[in-house]
Amino acid sequence: SLQAANLCSSYAPQACRPSLLRLARISRTPATAVCPFLRAVTGPERPSRPPRAAGARKLPVLYNSRVSALRLCQCRIVTAHASMLRSTSALLLTRLATTTIRAMAAIDSSGCAGECYADGTYQRGSRLRLGLVRHGESMNNVHEAQGTYKTGRVADPELSPRGRRQAEVLGAFLGNTSKAEYFGLGKIDEIWVSPHRRTLDTAAPAAKATGLAPRVYTDIFEAGGIYDANDAYDAFVARGGMTRAEMQAAHPTYVLPDAVDATGWYRGPGKESDDECRARAKRVLERVRATASGLKDSRNVLVVAHYDFISAFLDAVLVPGTTGEFARWRHHNTAVTVVDIEQATGEVAFMKVNAAPHIYEADEGLLSGF
């Protein structure tokens, strides 16, 4: 895959040099064997861009000093913080080094993924874009920040006042098409939401702003599920969560599955383990890929979920062998991580990670989460 370097080196931002060099070292590839690739990231001159075929539409410039990073050796341009890539572990880098020799993934002016190949041609392809949103700050998050989580938490917490404001700000941002294009979500086709109280409430302003009826999915709930714990936090009792009647009363436009009934929706025997959550996230990834494979046209979906579940989902994409706690990713409350799943191949490209422009734009001291 390093032989695709002539293309990808044309787009390698300066900030990515340390990670590119580390990739060469861990792949044990001599510099002479990947001369165009390494010369592009070590030499003073930046090679010219590949030629564009006659009649092909001009691709936007996706790299800059803030938000560009190279999906190494798969030769994709993705929008993520270069600082995150520099700190990415060798394990992640090796997972990203696939044998695919596509030149790069690009976003055209409509926000649709496409492919720019080595001969300069551009082909628009269908994809499923997921905007993965962590819920607004919950009262359990407040207890966690105050050091009273074990004694103050509840099984299914409400949003804090700050969390409700975060949800409102996110909804207003997504309701503005030009602003939502920052995420590539100028037109949202669906909203998927976890059945926890805090996620249902977080999705409500976005649903109102977009005119969409969120669809509840009971397989994207937070790691652990719905449970009460003793003060020592070593004994757990499962709770059902919101009942169908409670959900319908609070959010009458939401589409509920049959799994939400008079007893709630959570069926676990107690507290779900981290590895059980990881297995569930892998099943969700397969469901999402199956959904993508059946698309005729590209679709954008807002997915309102949770810190640990989103982390498990992203690990399922990049490092599916990961076990235990969710330590690799960071998600501020209502921050958005955007991924594309290609219709033809099921491959996943990262577009944004933990992006919260709506929080910074509001400038109300709303940033929270870790």
- How are the strands of the largest sheet arranged? 8-7-11-6-12-13
Shape: globular
Overall pLDDT metric: 78
Tally of DSSP β-strands: 13
The fraction of residues in strands falls at 15-25%
Would you tell me the structural class of the helices and strands? alpha/beta
Number of helices, counting only DSSP H or I runs of 4 residues or more? 14
Radius of gyration: 21 Å
Please summarize what this structure is:
With 370 residues, this protein is of the alpha/beta class. The protein contains 14 helices and 13 strands.
Structure keywords:
370 residues, alpha/beta, six-stranded mixed sheet, three-stranded antiparallel sheet, 14 helices
Description:
The structure is a single chain. The chain is α/β, with parallel strands linked by helices. Helix content is 34%, strand content 16%. It has 14 helices and 13 strands. The protein has helices at residues 5-8, 17-26, 35-42, 82-86, 90-96, 139-146, 149-152, 161-175, 177-180, 197-210, 244-250, 274-293, 307-318, 357-362, and strands at residues 69-71, 76-78, 104-107, 113-116, 122-124, 127-134, 190-193, 215-216, 227-229, 236-238, 299-305, 336-342, 348-355. A six-stranded mixed β-sheet has the order 8-7-11-6-12-13. Helix 12 crosses helix 13. The longest helix has 20 residues, at 274-293. The chain is globular, with a radius of gyration of 21 Å. 45% of the residues are buried. The model is unreliable at 1-15, 30-50, 55-91, 93-113 and 117-122 (pLDDT under 50).
